[in-house]
Protein backbone atom coordinates (compact mmCIF):
# COMPACT_ATOMS: atom_id res chain seq x y z
CA UNK A 1 0.00 0.00 0.00
CA UNK A 2 2.76 2.47 0.92
CA UNK A 3 4.58 1.73 -2.34
CA UNK A 4 1.51 2.80 -4.28
CA UNK A 5 0.72 5.85 -2.16
CA UNK A 6 4.30 7.10 -1.95
CA UNK A 7 6.17 5.96 -5.03
CA UNK A 8 3.66 5.58 -7.85
CA UNK A 9 2.75 8.73 -9.76
CA UNK A 10 0.44 7.62 -12.59
CA UNK A 11 -2.93 6.23 -11.51
CA UNK A 12 -5.52 4.92 -13.96
CA UNK A 13 -8.96 5.33 -12.38
CA UNK A 14 -11.35 2.71 -13.76
CA UNK A 15 -14.92 3.97 -13.81
CA UNK A 16 -14.01 7.67 -13.62
CA UNK A 17 -16.50 9.97 -15.31
CA UNK A 18 -17.02 13.71 -15.15
CA UNK A 19 -19.70 13.46 -12.44
CA UNK A 20 -18.36 15.35 -9.38
CA UNK A 21 -20.94 13.63 -7.17
CA UNK A 22 -19.30 10.24 -7.65
CA UNK A 23 -16.69 8.85 -5.29
CA UNK A 24 -14.32 8.08 -8.17
CA UNK A 25 -14.28 11.77 -9.10
CA UNK A 26 -13.54 12.87 -5.53
CA UNK A 27 -10.73 10.34 -5.13
CA UNK A 28 -9.25 11.26 -8.53
CA UNK A 29 -9.21 14.92 -7.48
CA UNK A 30 -7.50 13.95 -4.21
CA UNK A 31 -4.90 11.95 -6.13
CA UNK A 32 -4.19 15.04 -8.25
CA UNK A 33 -3.90 17.17 -5.10
CA UNK A 34 -1.31 14.65 -3.86
CA UNK A 35 0.72 15.15 -7.05
CA UNK A 36 -0.49 12.07 -8.92
CA UNK A 37 -1.36 12.01 -12.61
CA UNK A 38 -4.79 10.49 -13.11
CA UNK A 39 -5.91 8.63 -16.21
CA UNK A 40 -9.69 8.26 -16.60
CA UNK A 41 -10.72 4.78 -17.81
CA UNK A 42 -14.32 4.76 -18.95
CA UNK A 43 -16.10 3.36 -22.04
CA UNK A 44 -16.92 6.94 -23.15
CA UNK A 45 -13.27 8.07 -22.72
CA UNK A 46 -14.17 11.45 -21.21
CA UNK A 47 -11.68 14.16 -20.32
CA UNK A 48 -11.93 14.48 -16.53
CA UNK A 49 -10.13 16.94 -14.27
CA UNK A 50 -8.12 18.08 -17.29
CA UNK A 51 -6.87 14.58 -18.18
CA UNK A 52 -7.74 12.72 -21.39
CA UNK A 53 -9.72 9.56 -20.79
CA UNK A 54 -9.34 6.19 -22.50
CA UNK A 55 -11.88 3.48 -23.18
CA UNK A 56 -9.62 0.74 -21.81
CA UNK A 57 -6.31 0.27 -20.03
CA UNK A 58 -4.83 -1.18 -23.21
CA UNK A 59 -5.56 2.13 -25.00
CA UNK A 60 -3.36 4.21 -22.67
CA UNK A 61 -0.23 5.12 -24.70
CA UNK A 62 2.09 5.57 -21.70
CA UNK A 63 2.97 3.54 -18.58
CA UNK A 64 0.42 3.31 -15.78
CA UNK A 65 1.75 2.50 -12.34
CA UNK A 66 -1.46 1.89 -10.36
CA UNK A 67 -4.90 0.80 -11.54
CA UNK A 68 -7.54 2.09 -9.11
CA UNK A 69 -10.81 0.20 -9.63
CA UNK A 70 -14.24 1.70 -8.97
CA UNK A 71 -16.38 -1.19 -10.19
CA UNK A 72 -18.56 -3.79 -8.52
CA UNK A 73 -16.70 -6.78 -7.14
CA UNK A 74 -18.12 -9.14 -9.77
CA UNK A 75 -16.58 -7.14 -12.62
CA UNK A 76 -13.43 -5.81 -10.92
CA UNK A 77 -11.24 -8.88 -11.49
CA UNK A 78 -10.96 -8.31 -15.23
CA UNK A 79 -9.33 -4.94 -14.51
CA UNK A 80 -6.79 -6.55 -12.20
CA UNK A 81 -5.92 -8.94 -15.03
CA UNK A 82 -5.64 -6.02 -17.46
CA UNK A 83 -3.41 -4.17 -15.00
CA UNK A 84 -1.03 -7.13 -14.92
CA UNK A 85 -1.14 -7.31 -18.74
CA UNK A 86 -0.09 -3.66 -19.14
CA UNK A 87 2.72 -3.95 -16.59
CA UNK A 88 1.22 -1.88 -13.76
CA UNK A 89 3.06 -1.97 -10.44
CA UNK A 90 -0.11 -2.07 -8.37
CA UNK A 91 -3.85 -2.63 -8.31
CA UNK A 92 -6.15 -0.86 -5.86
CA UNK A 93 -9.71 -2.09 -5.28
CA UNK A 94 -11.77 0.59 -3.54
CA UNK A 95 -13.89 0.16 -0.41
CA UNK A 96 -16.36 -2.68 -0.82
CA UNK A 97 -14.60 -4.10 -3.89
CA UNK A 98 -13.43 -7.62 -3.06
CA UNK A 99 -12.33 -10.45 -5.35
CA UNK A 100 -10.09 -12.99 -3.63
CA UNK A 101 -9.36 -14.85 -6.88
CA UNK A 102 -8.22 -11.63 -8.56
CA UNK A 103 -6.05 -10.84 -5.53
CA UNK A 104 -4.41 -14.26 -5.74
CA UNK A 105 -3.86 -14.04 -9.52
CA UNK A 106 -2.45 -10.53 -9.30
CA UNK A 107 -0.09 -11.07 -6.40
CA UNK A 108 1.13 -14.39 -7.87
CA UNK A 109 2.26 -12.34 -10.87
CA UNK A 110 4.31 -10.13 -8.53
CA UNK A 111 1.97 -7.13 -8.70
CA UNK A 112 1.08 -5.42 -5.41
CA UNK A 113 -2.63 -5.30 -4.66
CA UNK A 114 -4.88 -3.65 -2.10
CA UNK A 115 -8.55 -4.61 -1.66
CA UNK A 116 -11.43 -2.95 0.13
CA UNK A 117 -9.48 0.25 0.91
CA UNK A 118 -9.55 3.95 0.06
CA UNK A 119 -6.46 6.11 -0.58
CA UNK A 120 -8.08 9.07 1.21
CA UNK A 121 -8.62 7.00 4.36
CA UNK A 122 -5.13 5.51 4.21
CA UNK A 123 -3.49 8.94 3.84
CA UNK A 124 -5.64 10.18 6.72
CA UNK A 125 -4.43 7.38 8.99
CA UNK A 126 -0.83 8.40 8.43
CA UNK A 127 -1.26 11.86 9.95
CA UNK A 128 -1.47 10.48 13.46
- Total number of beta strands: 5
Q: State the secondary-structure class.
A: alpha/beta
Q: What is the H/E order?
A: HEHEEHEHEH
CATH topology: Rossmann fold
Write down the CATH class: Alpha Beta
Count of individual domains: 1
Beta content: 15-25%
Rg result: 13 Å
Uncertain residue segments: none
Name the quaternary structure: single chain
Main sheet properties: 5 strands, parallel
Distance between termini?
17 Å
Placed side by side, the strands forming the largest sheet appear as: 2-1-3-4-5
**Residue share in helices?**
25-40%
CATH architectural designation: 3-Layer(aba) Sandwich
Give the integer mean of the pLDDT values. Answer: 94
Note the overall shape: globular
CATH superfamily: NAD(P)-binding Rossmann-like Domain
Give me the number of helical elements. 5
Structure explained in plain terms:
The chain has 128 residues and is α/β, with parallel strands linked by helices. 38% of the residues lie in helices and 16% in strands. The protein has helices at residues 2-7, 23-33, 73-86, 100-108, 119-126, and strands spanning 10-14, 37-41, 66-69, 90-93, 112-114. It has a 5-stranded parallel beta sheet with strand order 2-1-3-4-5, sandwiched between helices. The protein is globular.
Summarize the structure.
The protein has 5 helices and 5 strands.
What is the strand and helix layout of this fold?
Layout: H1 2-7, E1 10-14, H2 23-33, E2 37-41, E3 66-69, H3 73-86, E4 90-93, H4 100-108, E5 112-114, H5 119-126
Parallel strand pairs: 1-2, 1-3, 3-4, 4-5
Helix pairs in contact: 3-4
Amino acid sequence: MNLMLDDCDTWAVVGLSGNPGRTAYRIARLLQERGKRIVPIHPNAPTVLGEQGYASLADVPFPVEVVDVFRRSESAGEFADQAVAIGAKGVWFQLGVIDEDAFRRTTEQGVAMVMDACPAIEWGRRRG
